[in-house]
Amino acid sequence: MVEKKSKTVKKAPVKKTVAKKAPVKKTVAKKAPVKKVAVKKSSKATIANNKSKIAPYKSKKGEKYMSAAMKKHFVAVLLLWKEHLKDEMQKTFDHLRAKGETYADPVDRASQEEEFAFELRTRDRERKLISKIGLSIEQIKQDDYGWCESCGDEIGIKRLEARPTATHCIHCKTLDEIKEKQLNG
Ligand SMILES: [Zn+2]
Q1: How many domains are there within the chain?
Q2: Residue 165 domain-assigned?
Q3: For ligand 1, a single-atom ion, which residues have Cβ within 5 Å?
Q4: Ligand 1 centre from 144 Cα, in Å?
């Protein structure tokens, strides 16, 4: 039989030993210079930052949708965005070229390849976006901008501020997404 220990264990008061923290030693150990890979900002974030540079459009009282001033505003938004994306693409390009060296270590090489693939995908996305922006600017010129391509309703200023290249109103967009989900299981 197992011996029963009937001792009620009295909890010793927890002594808070204030351990003397050793002052944080700033070791100036000679580390191999850490190669700072340009911080990968998701391009989404940078787009958001960029768009906020132009204040959202304030409609005047009784102003009709897609007035000349409104169109001008969105051309400016789209152009600025495009410039920004072009800058980003150039940066990616420079970065890829600068990092063109190949590593002997397979681990390094693998991570480098991964990074390259990531940057190429980003570039591809940016390229597509730039062409979409071009289309939107073209639509503004043709007076087609801001109207849903499915139902013909106003896409709305608010939605266009958030997504200047939107071609569908939020209802049609949502519907499309639901349909797509159903199709893809
Ligand atoms: Zn619609």
Answers
A1: 1
A2: yes
A3: 148, 150-151, 153, 169, 172
A4: 14
Cα first-last separation, the chain: 61
Instruction: Answer yes or no: is 90 within a domain.
Output: no
CB 147 within 8 A of CB 159: no
Distance in Å, CA 181 to ligand 1 centroid: 18
Q: 177: CA distance to ligand 1 center in Å?
A: 13
Query: Does the residue 137 lie in any domain?
Result: no
Instruction: Place 52 in a pLDDT band, splitting at 50, 70 and 90.
Output: very low
**Which of 3-12, 103-112, 126-135 is least confident?**
3-12
Distance 170 CA to ligand 1 centre (A): 7
Res 45: pLDDT: 43
Kindly state the average pLDDT of the residues 17-46.
Answer: 51
- Residues 185, 173: Cα–Cα separation, whole Å: 18
Any domain includes 185: yes
Q: Give residue 159 CA to ligand 1 midpoint distance, Å.
A: 12
